[in-house]
Known about the structure:
This protein is an alpha+beta fold.
Amino acid sequence: MTIKRVRTPAGDEAWLVTGYDQVKTLLADRRLGRAHPDPDNAPRFSDSAILGKPRQATAEEEHEAHAWMRRSLAPSFSARNMESMRPRVRELADGLLDALVEQGQPADFHEGVAFPLPVLVICELLGVPYEDRADFRRWSDAASTLNDEQKSLQGMGQLFAYMGELVERKKKEPGDDVITRLIESTPPGQEEQIAQLSGGLLFAGHETTVAAIGRGAMLLSLNPERWAALRADPSGIPDVVEEILRHRSPVSAGPADSGMPRYAMAGLDVDGVHIPAGDLVLLGIDQANRDSERFPDPAAFVPRTSNPHLTFGFGPRFCIGAPLARVELSEVLHALVARFETFGLAVDLDELSVRTDQLVGGVTELPVSWTA
Length: 372
Ligand code: HEM
C-alpha cells in the first residue's frame, strides 16, 4: 500500500503517500494545492508560518499567483545563468576552505563552509548585504520552527519587514541583482509581493542547500573509498551530487512519516483510496526516493547511472533553485577533493546533533579533520 493515515507534527490527520510513481504523479497534479477554502478548520502540517495554516484562495487564484511567481523568477534562476555563477561559487568555496584550514583542525564544517557558502551566493544574487546574515539567520530559523506558531510568525514578519526596507532602498539605488530586476519588471504598487518573494528566496535559497552540503560532506567522510575515487577522477562528482540529494532530502526534518504538504482541492482517488476535498495530503519525497522498486538497495550511498530522485519536487512546482543548488554542491565537492587527501568526521556519527524541530533538517555542527 502506498497511502496511509498519519499524524502531522501539528497533531492533525493527513494522508501520507509513499510510492515513487504515486508521489511523482501527485507532485504534478493540479488538484492538489497549497490553499484551502476554510483555513481556520483545515488540518495543519505544522505550526510554522511557512507550512502551517494554509492561505485562503480558490484553485484559480492559487494558480494565478503561482504563475506570476514562476514568470518573475524563472529567468533569473535559469540553468544557463546559474552555470555562469560556477567560477564565482568555486572561488567562494576555496576562500571558505582557506579560512577553515587556517583555523586548524578539528574544525566545524557546518559553520565554516556549509552555512556561509549558500548564504554568500544567495546574498550576491539577490543583492542582500552579507553583513546582515546574523539577523536573517535568526529570523529564518525562527520562521521555520515547526512547533511554535508565534515564534514562527514573528520570524517571518521580521524577515519580510527587512526585505520590505531593502526593496524600498533598491528602488532608489538599483543594483545588478535579482531584487532590482523584480522591481523593474513588476508594476508599481506590488512592493509587498516583491518583498515576500525575495524573503522566500532568501529562505529557500540557503536553508535547504546548507543542509545538503552538510549531508554531502558527512556522507563522503564516512566513505573514504568514494573520496579517493573522486580525488582520482572528479568527473564522478555530478553522479555523487545526485546521490547525496536522493539519499535523504535536505528538506526532511521532523518525524519520519512526513512529506510535502498539499490540500486536495477536489476529491481524488489514490491507489483505490478516496481522498475527499479539503483533506491534507503529504507527498513523501524521502519515501519515494527510497522506493526499492525504483532505486535498488535504497539505503546504500552509491552513485547511480539513473537517479530520477524527487528531492527538488516534480512538475509545475519543480524547484526554481535546483540548478543553483547543483552548482553549489558540485563546486564545494570539487574544492574539497582537490584540497584534502583524506577527510573525516572528528566525532562519532551518533554525537552529531540533528535539527528535528524545523522544516529543514541538517546538523547543527559538523566537526571534521583532514590530511592535506
Ligand atoms: C538542495 C537544495 C534544495 C532543495 C532540496 C529544494 C527543494 C525544493 C522542493 C522539494 C520544492 C518543491 C516544493 C513543492 O512541490 O511544493 C522547491 C521549490 C522551490 N525552491 Fe527549492 N530546493 C533547494 C534549493 C533552492 C534554492 C537554492 C532556491 C533559490 C534560489 C530555491 C527556491 C525554490 C523556489 C522559489 C521554489 C518554489 C517553486 C514553485 O512553487 O513553483 N530552492 N524546492
